[in-house]
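Narrative summary of target 7.
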Amino acid sequence: ESAKSNSASAKESLDAVLDLKNDVDAIKQKIEKSEENARRAAKRAMASKFFAEAVAENEKNPQKAIELYTESIKCDNRNAEAYNNRGILYDNLGKKDKAMDDYNKAIEINPNKSESYNNRGILLDDLGKKDEALIDYNKAIELNPNNADVYNNRAILHKKIGNRDRALADYNKAIESMFIFSTERLSISKE
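Modeled conformation, tokenized:
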């Protein structure tokens, strides 16, 4: 009987050790997951820091801003706004291929951001690709029907290609959109 008792006691001890090992493994997994979450949060924080610094440099020092957007992208390569903003700077510096790559990447990451379509539309228009530019302006308006800048850009394109009636309609829509935006800002400031 003592052999049975020792065997049962040994089995209970073994079960306790296995339970303890499982608990330790579960704790290790939680620690690893927490460490990974902390690493991701730190990378996002660094990306935000670089992004904020880049925004501050946009007008003063575009080349420095490009470098900072690049650092932000290295930390968070899913930041569509960083690609879009860097694309604007590349475009302003005449680096059209790099600008196009950045606008395309911004749209790939966030296909619902009208600004990226608008910016790519401007570049396409500059490159003489009027039909493609029109497609991008239309998509930008579909995504944000109150963006006066896009209506204005599309109006300019319509005027270039001889669609005067459409150009006039878009200029009017741009003015209307600016009025709506101004009215909304005024009502917000009164609250």
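Residues 2-57 form the longest helix (56 residues).
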